[in-house]
Each structure stands twice: as structure tokens, then as C-alpha cells.
Design a protein that fits this description.
- The complex is a heterodimer of chains A (89) and B (187).
- Chain A is built from 5 helices and no strands.
- By secondary structure, chain A is mostly helical.
- Chain A has 2 domains: 48 residues, no CATH class; 38 residues, Orthogonal Bundle (Serum Albumin, Chain A, Domain 1), CATH 1.10.246.
- The radius of gyration of chain A is 17 Å and the shape is elongated.
- The model of chain A has no long low-confidence stretch (mean pLDDT 91).
- Among the domains of chain B are: 40 residues; 44 residues, no CATH class.
- Chain B is built from 7 helices and 2 strands; from the N terminus they run ααββααααα.
- In chain B, a hairpin with a 6-residue loop joins strand 1 and strand 2.
- Classes of the chains: A mainly alpha (89), B mainly alpha (187).
- Chain A: Pfam families: EnY2 (PF10163).
- Chain A: Keywords: Activator, Chromatin regulator, mRNA transport, Nucleus, Protein transport, Transcription, Transcription regulation, Translocation, Transport.
């Protein structure tokens, strides 16, 4: 049943819109720049030639999740909840 | 394919909240991955570190905030009272008068050609312009002020009026415009 809602989310384009909204908010609040700085550290550690996507993902994603500001999370959760309640039947 | 027909309203709120959190967490992970891919490509293509400058060069170009000086640190009215030597007549001219003087001196620029053609025309009529050449040069240096221009303009309009009284100017059969259309017709 979750799968059905997920499917709706994608089919109606709402997931794309949510993605874009999240991206815009994260850039605005400086999250993107913070993470880029973290990436720089990983790169300096591993060396430019040898750094892989996995290195970056492993090094950066956990902190990235923690760094998302609460206001952004709230706003997105609101939209998601609204969608869920609208399309729950 | 028949799916379970359980509606969300029967799902309690905490589950729905959990679901929403999961969706959010997926979205955030997508954003992180997207960033990692962008950064990785930038690193491998060599443009990731392009906008970094070292501290020294940053200090060289810092914005200056002192009085009497512009934001680049240059004094901006330094050249007001300097004098330049004209390469043509070797006179020493003030900097602010230098450009108009050069115009007259070299015989180029709009004003000097107008003045020259006016002199030629009045030379044909009155025959006294030769001796006054040098004095005219200095007088015309002040052409840029409003009063002198008024006098000059007035004289010109008088001449145009005189021309129109004499006789109508016939269409020159050799003027470029005319000949162009004629050429096309004959082809």
C-alpha cells in the first residue's frame, strides 16, 4: 500500500517537484556549500587522482543528513503529509 | 494485479508520519548523492578548484575604503592640473584642454573639419582668412563653451538661408544614389 502511494507520488510528478523544492531550499540555506567544503576535505585526504564517488558518498552523506536545517525539513514534511492525506484513498 | 485495499485513513497517524519521514529521508539522500556526483565529475574534469585563490592575491585586490582614493586605491583627480606637451606643435597644454587642442592641431575630429570648411567658404567670399589662421586656432579652442558655439551656429544658419535664396540646387546626375538606381534599371 505504501508502494501504491509511492507510485502515485512519482506518476503525478509530485516527487520531482518535491526534489526541486528541497534542492532550492538547501542551496538557499547554504547546505550545499557546507557539503562542498566537506567534499574538499575528503578529496584532500584521498588525493585528487584516487577519489571515487563511493569515497565522497561515504564521507559526506551522513553529515549531509544531519546538516539539513529543521525549517527545511518541516516545510517538506508538511507538503508530503498534505499529499498523503489528499491521496490516501 | 489486485492490491490490498486498505486506505490510509485506517492507518494511524504515527505510521503516516513515519512514512512521510521515510519519503523525506529518500529525498535528502537523493540530494546528497546528486551533489557527490557533481563534485566527483568536477574533480575528475579538473574544474572543482578553479575558483580558489590563494590568500596573497586576495589581499592584493581587496576593496579600499580610504578617503581621497577610489575603491581600487587610485587617486582619481591626480591628472587635473598636469600639463602635457603636444606632439604636433610642442606646446604645453593643460590636461583638460588637451583633447580639444589635439583635435584642432591635427586637423581631425568633427569640429575642426566644420571650422575648416567654413573658413574655406568664407575665404572664397571675403579673401582675408590667411593671416588669421593662428589666432583662429586659439579662439576655436574655446569652441566647447556654449557662448562661442552659439555664435558659430548662427553664422552657419545665415549661410544656409542665403543659399536657398539663390537658386534651387539641381539634382546631380552623377550622385551615387541616382546612378545606383539607373544601373539596376539598365540590367
Amino acid at each position: 500500500m505504501r508502494a501504491a502511494i509511492n507510485q502515485k507520488l512519482i506518476e503525478m510528478g509530485e516527487r520531482e517537484r518535491l526534489k526541486e523544492l528541497l534542492r532550492a531550499k538547501l542551496i538557499e540555506c547554504g547546505w550545499r556549500d557546507q557539503l562542498k567544503a566537506l567534499c574538499k576535505e575528503v578529496i584532500k585526504e584521498k588525493g585528487i587522482e584516487n577519489v571515487t564517488v563511493e569515497d565522497l558518498v561515504a564521507g559526506v552523506t551522513p553529515k549531509g543528513r544531519a546538516l539539513v536545517p529543521d525549517s527545511v525539513k518541516k516545510e517538506l514534511l508538511q507538503r508530503i503529509r498534505a499529499f498523503l492525506s489528499q491521496h490516501s484513498t | 494485479m489486485k492490491m490490498e485495499d486498505v486506505s490510509l485513513s485506517s492507518m494511524d497517524n504515527s505510521k503516516m508520519e513515519g512514512f512521510a519521514q521515510d519519503i523525506l529521508s529518500d529525498l535528502v539522500e537523493d540530494a546528497c548523492l546528486g551533489l557527490c556526483f557533481e563534485v566527483h565529475r568536477a574533480v575528475k574534469q579538473g574544474y572543482f578548484f578553479l575558483d580558489d585563490t590563494d590568500q596573497e592575491s586576495m589581499k592584493d585586490f581587496e576593496i579600499v575604503d580610504q578617503p581621497g582614493v577610489d575603491i581600487f586605491g587610485q587617486v582619481y583627480n591626480q591628472w587635473k592640473n598636469k600639463e602635457c606637451v603636444c606632439p604636433n606643435c610642442s606646446r604645453s597644454i593643460a590636461a583638460s584642454r588637451f583633447a580639444p587642442h589635439l583635435e584642432k592641431c591635427l586637423g581631425m575630429g568633427r569640429n575642426s573639419s566644420r571650422i575648416a570648411s567654413r573658413r574655406i567658404a568664407s575665404g572664397n567670399n571675403t579673401n582675408k582668412s590667411e593671416s588669421d589662421q593662428e589666432d583662429n586656432d586659439d579662439v576655436n579652442d574655446n569652441d566647447w563653451s556654449y557662448g562661442a558655439e552659439k555664435k558659430a551656429k548662427k553664422r552657419k544658419s545665415d549661410k544656409v538661408f542665403l543659399h536657398s535664396l539663390k537658386q534651387p540646387v539641381p539634382l546631380n546626375p552623377n550622385s551615387p544614389r541616382r546612378s545606383k538606381s539607373m544601373k539596376h534599371k539598365n540590367d
